[in-house]
Each structure stands twice: as structure tokens, then as C-alpha cells.
From TrEMBL:
Similarity comment text for this entry: Belongs to the UPF0749 family.
Protein name stated in the entry: Membrane protein
Organism of this sequence: Cellulomonas oligotrophica
Keyword Membrane: yes
Stored PANTHER family: CONSERVED MEMBRANE PROTEIN-RELATED, UPF0749 PROTEIN RV1825
Length: 281
């Protein structure tokens, strides 16, 4: 026997008189409710579509701002660092000017920095006699297969040895590549790439030191680490040259000068290379 099943209408609530009929036959049915999960999925899809559209438009409008290879990215970042460094120099000059104005308004007369302090701090350009030292990787065509390739490139410790020897020899100011370096400067070598103050350089690496050329040469000759590099330069073809200069021109330092973790130990010269009486004035 065939039985036809019919869904029984839901009993109307007590206040059904106040609720208008919702069925086609005039009977009352409970209103449908949209599931929370479905609503959340729809919202996520809508937001994803919006983000995709925004990213697509940004890529189309600013394609020139996104380099397509590492070389372009490196050049773009180097240009950005150079621009920001220039802005830092401008802001630092403005801070110094405003500080002087505030001191004058308050009737304060701070003791001016000596010439030696300005030079050692890198706040002024420097011109004078000195040395130019150039270090370079061994030429590719002259490299030997029986030698560890790691010995055929300039390393961070090689540059550090040269610069430390020049400081010990009485260098009053120093530059690495096209930047001024001071006692708090730090650089790193990654492979054969030098990173200094946010900029990237490739060999040959040029170190310039203002000071007595005779004393500077003697300090280089007295350094065991420098002597080891010079020996490898003769045996393996590494680049090495030292030239006297009558008028080196070094720019002012443009990096950060604040110290966060470092303190000067007792008995350490704050301004190496200067007479003791000038350091305390």
C-alpha cells in the first residue's frame, strides 16, 4: 500500500496572530536562518577577492618599483641608503643648530670641541698627507687549482688588520671606500662583498688614512697579520699596494654615533693618535 508522507506544519506560536503567514497556503512556517559558517566563508571570499584586486593594481601601477633580479634590488637599496644618509646629515645639522640656539637662549656656554675631537668624531671633513692601501682578490685567470679558493679572496680580517695597524700607527682620520670610518664603525664581508653603513661594495677595497706616511708604513710592516696577507699576495696573486699621498680628502662621517651597549674602559684612549694633553682639553 502506497503511503504518501506529508511534512506536518509546525504549530504556530502563541502570538501567531501577530506573525503574518509565511507559506503559500497561508500556513505559518518558521523563518530560515543563514548558517554562521556560510556567512563567514562568504566574508572571507569577499575579502580575498578585494586583496587580490588591490595587489594586482599595485603591481600594474608600480612595476618599476619592484626589481626583477638581485642586482637591481641591490642597486635600488644602495640608492635608498644613500638618500637616507643625506637626509640624516641634514637633520643632524638642524639638530646641532637648534641645540646651539637653545643653549644661547638659556644662557649656557658649553665648552666647544677641540679640533682633535672634531676630527676623531668624524664630524668634519679632513684633508692631509697619508697613505692609500688597496686590497684585491686574486685574478681569476691566475688562480691555481691546487690552492684553496678561500685563500684567493680578501676577507674581513684582512681589512681589519690593515685598518687596526693604521690606527696604531697614528692615523688621525680614516676612510674605507668612499665613506669615513671612526672608532665605532663596523663592517662585514659576506663572500667577496663588503657591507659598510648599509652600502655594498665589491673589490678592490681602498683604505685611506690621514697621518704621517712614514709612521703609517712602519705600523703596517710591524703587523704580523698584515705581513701574512702580503706574503699571500706574493705567493697567490692577491692584490696589494701602498701609496704615499700628499693631500688626501676624506668626507665627514655620516653614520650613527650613539652607543647603546659599549662603554670605554678605564685607561683606554678615547681619541687614539692624539697627544694626551689634547685629549683632556
Amino acid at each position: 500500500m502506497n503511503q504518501h508522507l506529508h511534512r506536518a506544519p509546525v504549530a504556530a506560536p502563541p502570538d501567531a496572530a501577530a506573525v503574518p503567514p509565511s507559506g503559500r497556503d497561508g500556513r505559518w512556517w518558521p523563518p530560515r536562518r543563514i548558517a554562521r559558517g556560510a556567512l563567514a566563508v562568504g566574508l572571507v571570499l569577499a575579502l580575498s577577492g578585494l586583496m587580490f584586486t588591490v595587489n594586482a593594481r599595485a603591481s600594474a601601477d608600480g612595476g618599476s618599483r619592484h626589481p626583477q633580479n638581485l642586482a637591481e634590488l641591490s642597486q635600488q637599496e644602495a640608492a635608498t641608503v644613500e638618500r637616507l644618509s643625506s637626509e640624516v646629515d641634514t637633520l643632524r645639522a638642524a639638530v646641532e643648530r637648534l641645540t646651539d640656539e637653545q643653549n644661547a637662549a638659556a644662557g649656557l656656554t658649553p665648552e666647544p670641541a677641540t679640533a682633535g675631537q672634531l676630527v676623531a668624531g668624524g664630524t668634519v671633513p679632513v684633508t692631509g698627507p697619508g697613505l692609500t692601501v688597496v686590497l684585491d682578490d686574486a685574478p681569476v685567470e691566475s688562480r691555481r687549482t691546487d690552492v684553496n679558493p678561500d685563500l684567493l679572496v680578501v676577507h674581513q680580517q684582512d681589512l681589519q688588520s690593515v685598518m687596526n695597524a693604521l690606527w696604531a700607527g697614528g692615523a688621525e682620520a680614516m676612510g674605507l671606500m668612499d665613506q669615513r670610518v671612526i672608532a665605532t664603525s663596523a663592517f662585514r664581508c659576506v663572500g667577496n662583498v663588503l657591507r659598510l653603513h648599509g652600502r655594498i661594495y665589491s673589490p678592490p677595497y681602498v683604505v685611506q688614512a690621514v697621518g704621517d706616511p712614514v709612521r703609517l708604513r712602519a705600523a703596517l710592516a710591524a703587523s704580523p697579520a698584515v705581513a701574512g696577507y702580503v706574503r699571500d699576495a706574493g705567493d697567490l696573486g692577491l692584490g696589494w699596494s701602498v701609496q704615499d699621498q700628499t693631500a688626501l680628502e676624506l668626507p665627514a662621517y655620516s653614520g650613527a654615533t650613539e652607543l647603546t651597549w659599549a662603554d670605554v674602559p678605564d685607561g683606554v684612549d678615547v681619541l687614539p693618535g692624539l697627544p694626551a694633553d689634547e685629549e683632556t682639553t
